[in-house]
Every structure is written in C-alpha cells, then in structure tokens.
Amino acid sequence: MLILANVSKAVVETIKEYLAFAGAMPVTEAMNILNISEGTPLSSALINRQASKISAKNKKALPASACILKKISSAEKVLLREIE
Domains of the chain (ranges plus CATH)? Predict the structure, then answer.
C-alpha cells in the first residue's frame, strides 16, 4: 500500500510539472522577454534580477499587466529550468 501511495504521489507531481511546462515557450523567446542576450551565460541571479526588473516596470499598466506578468513569470521558469 505504501508503495502505491509513493507511486501515486510521484505520478501526480510529474503531471503537475508537465502541465506547468506544457505551454512553455522556447528558451530564445524567454531570453528575449527578459532582455537577456543570447551570448550571456545564464545564472539564477541574472534571471531573477531581470524578471524582477521587468515585472516592476510593467505592474503600473494594470489592465494589460496580467498577461505581461504571466509571460515574464513563464520566461523566468523556462530559463531557470534550462540551467538546472
């Protein structure tokens, strides 16, 4: 029973991860959204700093910001996943 519970938990986590990245954008698009040039080596600090900076700029445009902020968040996830 314990084995089945562990397998079920692993399957659920895998499905959640797949759904989170199913509509993920290409790395180059994510880099463009975060204004990171292609030759720049990726690091967690760089990605987080760029995402925070761009998010802060776009929070002022409230009606359109939800879509923009979602794209920024997605770009951040894609690039962080790329450097893992």
Answer: 24-83 (1.10.287)
Those residues whose C-beta lies under 8 Å from the C-beta of residue 53, and which sit 6 or more positions away, are none
Give the CA distances from residue 63 to residues 34, 48, 52, in Å, rounded to whole numbers and listed in that order. Answer: 20, 24, 19
- How buried is residue 69: exposed, middle or buried, by Cβ count under 10 Å (0-12/13-18/19+)? middle
Here the tokens at position 62 are 């409230």
pTM of structure: 0.62
pLDDT digits 0-9 by tens, 34-57: 999 988 899 999 999 999 998 888
Query: In whole angstroms, how far apart are CA 23 and each of 26, 40, 53, 60?
Result: 10, 25, 24, 26
